[in-house]
Amino acid sequence: MTSNKFINLILRFGGMGSKFILIILLSKYLSVQDYGEFNLLTTSITIAIYVLGLDFYNYAIRDILSNTKNVYHKIVNTFLLYIVIYVIFFLLLAIFLKDIRFITDYYLYFFLISITEHLSQELYRLQIAFTKITLANTLLFFRIFGYAFTVILIFYQHHFIEISTILKIWALFNSIVLMVGLFDLFKGHKIMFSLDVNWVKKGLKVSLFFFGATFFLKILEYANRYIIAYFSSDYDVGIFSFYSNIAIIITVYISTIVTSYQLPNLIKNASSNNIKQLLYRTKKDLIKQSIICFILSGFVLIIFLYWQDKADYQQYIFLFPILGISSIIVNISLIYYFEMLIFHKEKSILLSTLKSCILNFVVAVPLIKYFGVTGAAIATIIGAVLLFYFRRFELKKHAIN
Predict the structure, then answer these.
(1) Please, are residues 96 and 151 in contact by the beta-carbon 8 Å criterion?
(2) 10, 170, 211, 212: least CB-packed within 10 angstroms?
(3) Cβ partners under 8 Å of residue 163, min gap 6
(4) What is the rounded distance in angstroms from the CA atom of residue 354 to the CA atom of residue 366?
(5) Residue 387's CB: how many other CB atoms inside 10 A?
(6) Count of helix runs (H) and strand runs (E) in the chain
(7) Residue 33 class from Cβ within 10 Å (0-12 exposed, 13-18 middle, 19+ buried)?
(8) Would you say 210 and 62 are in contact if contact means Cβ atoms under 8 Å apart?
(9) Of 73-82, 93-102, 247-256, 338-347, where does the model show the most confidence?
């Protein structure tokens, strides 16, 4: 690992680590039911972020990297599109989801956090595309660490904190760091607020395939929590969410160490003679780094379970190896996603995810209904295997490899 990668890993995990400590702290001092409800809210924000973007960034960044003309005009057009999406989405949300308590009770915060999280995510992707990786991870660190540290500080001062206060602090730090990032992105560049309708329309046609794929991928990743809530209780959601939050460390690690470095390089070199060697090296990195992080995550889990000292979570420790291996399988399958992405096989990306999602949902409902969180974990690993298989199948179908 180079010193640059090590610095970025420290920054990324410093931020994510502080958030993780906050999540563990909440799991220790909140009731399992309240912890489950809080996770349903944060999961809904995560899903909203993907809906708000329509995965337009896949088209925009690929076009920016492959065609460097009018780069900042393309960026402005992308943000103008997002503003339109925000207005439509939150109007529909207010009309159709007004009876969902954990959203309506915190609607304003849900609105602010979803938008600032989405814009911050888009800004992070642009910084990665422009190879400003250290800057991207530095801003990410201050955004997450500032929010988590402030919440933890208030909690230890008062030994109590309301969910609304946590959400206020989250929105505040998102907004501050977002303004800093936007200033850096546009400084020295003339901004023209003119909409290139043809470019946006072309992008939407392409990105809708990506959006469909991401939408079904998020259903694959998060539907189990809602199914648990439907058939069981917020208590079981809390148990499952706790171990899912540990397993997701592997995905964050892979995103930092492999994806952020390799994917822009793969896109730039898609037509070069050494693309196969680059893909092979990326595949090796995905496998090796996923296994390393799985082992490290296991040690982290043991430490936190000891500190947490809650039998409710300890008795379900068997969930971690199942969910951790699921995460490894999904991360290794990214090599097939990367290859379909760089060779413009958007329909194949959508089909692979759609098939996996439908089959997994059919399996997940009875498993969760009759076996609870254990069934949810089994459904998760089945979903990971399905995603791996269909991504590989769709790639081989086009004989790209």
Answers:
(1) no
(2) 10
(3) 34, 38, 41, 106
(4) 20
(5) 28
(6) 16, 0
(7) middle
(8) no
(9) 73-82
- The CA distance from 24 to 18, in Å, is 10
Buried b (16+ CB within 10 A) or exposed e, 310-331: eeebeebeebbbbbbbbbbbbb
Element (H, E) at 349: helix 346-397
- Provide the 8-state DSSP code for 161: -
C-beta separation of 328 from 388 below 8 A: no
pTM higher than 0.90:
no
Calculate the alpha carbon distances from 173 to 22, 150, 163, 180, 227 in Å: 15, 10, 16, 11, 32
Taking the C-alpha atoms of residue 251 and residue 289, their distance in angstroms, rounded to an integer, is: 10
Q: Which two tokens stand for residue 115?
A: 């938008």
Please name the amino acid found at residue 31.
Answer: S
Q: Which long-range contacts (CB under 8 A, 24 or more apart) does 275-281 make?
A: 275/342, 279/335, 279/338, 279/339
Query: Could you give the CA distance from residue 317 to residue 305 in angstroms, rounded to a whole number?
Result: 9
Residues written for the chain: 401
Name the residue among 338, 331, 390, 339 with its Cα closest to residue 360. Answer: 390
Residue with tokens 């995965």, as numbered in its chain: 55
Q: Is the dihedral of CA 164, 170, 173, 174 positive or negative?
A: negative
pLDDT tens sequence across 57-104: 888 888 888 777 888 889 999 999 999 999 998 888 777 766 666 566
